[in-house]
Amino acid sequence: MRVSLLCLTLAVALSTATPALAAKPCDGPGHGKLLIQGGGGAPEEYTAKGLQLCGGPGSRVVVVAYATGNLHPHSKGEIEYDVLVAMLKKSWTDAGAINVTVLDLETDEGSAIAAVEAADYIFFDGGDQKTLLKWMDGAPAVMAAIRRRHAAGALVGGMSAGAAAMPALMIKGGETADLTAIKSGGTEIGAGLGFWPEVITDQHFVKRQRFARLVSAVLDNPAFPGIAIDEETAILVSGDSFEVFGKGGVIVIDARHTKVGKAAKGEVQSGRGMRMSVLRAGDRFDWKKGK
Fold first, then answer.
1. Residue 32 in contact with residue 150, Cβ under 8 Å?
2. b/e string for 262-278 if b means 16 or more Cβ within 10 A?
3. Residue 281 needs a FRET pair 20 to 30 A away by CA distance; which of 28, 40, 107, 234 works?
4. Which positions are catalytic?
5. Span 172-184, pLDDT tens digits
6. Which parts of the chain sit beneath pLDDT 70?
């Protein structure tokens, strides 16, 4: 499946820092990695973890909040734009951040790209992943800048919808999936952001009882193991492995060596020899080897 060029943009600077400063890669242990959280709010320790990985409170953070659907200056939403931006900033400043920019896709593409090019940590917030992808598809130049920045060493993070959008194959959302039966085609898949193209991710997993939808997605796409992250739980992805931290668990559903049954769309699906791993804080997992 072709990964769409998704995007983000325009910088509403929330600090006095100048995004056009010469960019340096995230030079801490988070260099070029992915920090993915399962939702259920953004615990301060998770936000602080991302800052720590990129060198501390001075890390230049760019927040992509378009999964909310109404983050733009002319929004008619229930919350005023400036108030919403201030709320987004507070979750970071409470964790110690002093240099935060929220992308504004409607104002000036050049400013957005400059903010991304200076970023140490680019964070995709929660909401609805289909909405996030719709906005990102409309800003390909900004999305390309984000990809370049990650390749150069910036940490990329995602929470909830931002977590679901990390792979190339993205589960479109809870309302598009059958949560009560494992069926062929029971989980609608679309193009994601493509930062972790070899897997399918799911979030709020145990809390929202999403087992059936992920198993359906994996059986339909057996080359892609499913990585399910529960609420208040995160993984740090580095190379071929990831480490779990937080309060909940991570479940890996692997059908790469499974004999998948033949089923028409809508029929109950089957598979023999699937592997499942249940992980908790402190566990490391080699997702390429499946162990």
1. yes
2. ebeeeeebebeebeebe
3. 28
4. 160, 175, 204
5. 876 667 888 999 9
6. 1-25, 42-43, 70, 72-79, 174-176
* CB neighbour class for 177 (10 Å; exposed up to 12, middle 13-18, buried from 19): buried
The predicted pLDDT at position 75 comes to: 57
Count the alpha carbons within 13 Å of 126 in the hemisphere toward its beta carbon: 15
- For residues 37 and 159, the answer to whether their CB atoms sit within 8 Å is yes
pLDDT value at residue 227: 98
* Whole-number Cα distances in Å, 197 to 165, 270, 284: 10, 25, 20
d(CA 124, CA 145): 14
Enumerate the domain spans of the chain: 11-285
DSSP 138: T
Paired sense of beta strands 121-124 and 155-159, if any = parallel
- Where would I find the H helices in the chain? 44-53, 81-93, 109-117, 129-137, 140-152, 161-164, 211-220
What pLDDT was estimated at residue 174?
62
Tens of pLDDT, residue by residue over 220-275, are: 999 999 999 999 999 999 999 999 999 999 999 999 999 999 999 999 999 999 99
For 144, 199, 255, 267, the CA distances from 184, given in Å and listed in that order, are: 34, 18, 14, 6
Give the containing element (helix H, strand E) for 256: none
What is the reported pLDDT for 86?
87
pLDDT given at position 42: 65
Q: Are 166 and 67 in contact (CB under 8 A)?
A: no
Cβ contact 205:37 at 8 Å: no
